[in-house]
Amino acid sequence: MTAAPERACQASGGVRPTGVERRLGAEELIVTKTDLQGRITYANDTFLRISALVEEETLGRPHNIIRHPQMPRGLYSCLWSTIAAGEEMFAYVKNLATDGAHYWVLAHVTPSITPDGKPCGYHSNRRSPSRSALPVVEQLYARMLRAERGLPANEAARAGVQVLEEALAEAGTTYSGWIWSLEEEGAS
Q: Where do transmembrane segments lie in this chain (predicted)?
């Protein structure tokens, strides 16, 4: 299933969430690749289908065309600083398809490296997250969003990061440790 081209063009800001949720199948994987600026250079069929996109309208577009308004800027700030430093990151992400549906993923984002060791882009695999983790994740993300509300973008990101760091310090863990503890709880 592909979206009409006008839907793909709306994705950068004109799409309103409908409240309809899509779910990845247990065996499905979303795969995308981007350049260093976050422009999509590859998208698999699962990504296109679940995001209601067509390949011709997707390649070359910024990956944030699927950014859901209920995702805190602070999380993306952490993500970008982590991968820009050459490290991998796992993150729970709520995305917005171009038809207004949303879907949750557990994303694994890594830098792509040339044979001579230089970063040339990013690679992300996403799978279905533990359903039992989502209420906990949504609660933390809502706290981050409240701290970010009404602030300019850079200040909002810093405020969200601060809430995230405080929550993780309270829990005595890192973001990765928190992610995996939630995934393990959901598996048991």
A: none
Q: End-to-end CA distance of the chain, in Å?
A: 34
- pTM value > 0.85: yes
Gap between the Cα atoms of 142 and 33, Å rounded: 28
Span 5-130: which CATH code?
A: 3.30.450.20
Domain ranges of the chain: 5-130
Sign of CA dihedral 8, 12, 15, 21: positive
| pLDDT-derived band at 13, boundaries 50, 70, 90 | low
Residue 57 to residue 4: CA distance in whole angstroms = 9
Q: Which residues contact 169 (CB under 8 A, 6 or more apart)?
A: none
Which of 47, 133, 59 lies closest to 90, judged by CA?
Answer: 133
- Average pLDDT rounded to a whole number, residues 157-180: 96
Is the torsion defined by CA of 36, 61, 162, 164 positive or negative? negative
Helices and strands (DSSP H and E) totals, the chain: 7, 5
E strand or H helix at 156: helix 153-171
Model confidence pLDDT, tens digit, residues 89-128: 999 999 999 999 999 999 999 999 999 999 999 999 999 9
